Amino acid sequence: MKKINFDEYLKNFDYQERIDMKIKLPELLKLYEEGKVQVIDIRFDEEYEAWKIGFGDHIPLNEIPNRLDEIDKNKTVVTMCPHYDRAEIARLYLKLQGFNARYLTDGMLGIVDYLRGDKARDYMKKIRTQ
Questions:
Q1: What is the total count of domains within the chain?
Q2: Does some domain include residue 1?
Q3: Is 106 a domain residue?
């Protein structure tokens, strides 16, 4: 895990990084089932207390610097928030710390919309049996 500074990151930013920094919901759900990603909900404690999606870890954005030891260096880290603005801040910070990090473009509201009814039941059944 190699830390990089922001200047270095910007100088090397290209079209591929623009693609690699993002992840859409179908890919996230597949990789989560396979155990290849660590999903981190970066919302404030009060938001998390008000509603949760049922999987992933909760590390508020402002606590990430002090809780890096809770993040798996061997997995792709996917940050998420209701939309994606704070998730991108978290992703960039983790990237600069040397993690392979992406942010969920669909946001948590996309997950809630997608995982309803039978889809929620079937997906949770899948991840619980692994």
A1: 1
A2: no
A3: yes
pLDDT tens-digit readout, 6-53:
999 999 999 999 999 999 999 999 999 999 999 999 999 999 999 988
For tokens 């981190």, what's the residue?
40
Residues of the chain with pLDDT > 90, as a percent, come to: 80
Range of the domain at 49: 6-128
- pTM score, whole prediction: 0.91
Q: Quick one: DSSP state of residue 28?
A: H
What residue type is 51 in one-letter code? W
Long-range contacts from 71-74, C-beta under 8 angstroms, 24+ separation? 71/38, 71/40, 71/99, 72/38, 73/1, 73/98, 73/99
Name the residue type at position 130: Q
Q: Using alpha carbons, select from 15, 56, 52, 50 the residue that is nearest to residue 35.
A: 56
Residue 52 lies in a domain: yes
95 CB neighbour count, 10 Å cutoff: 21
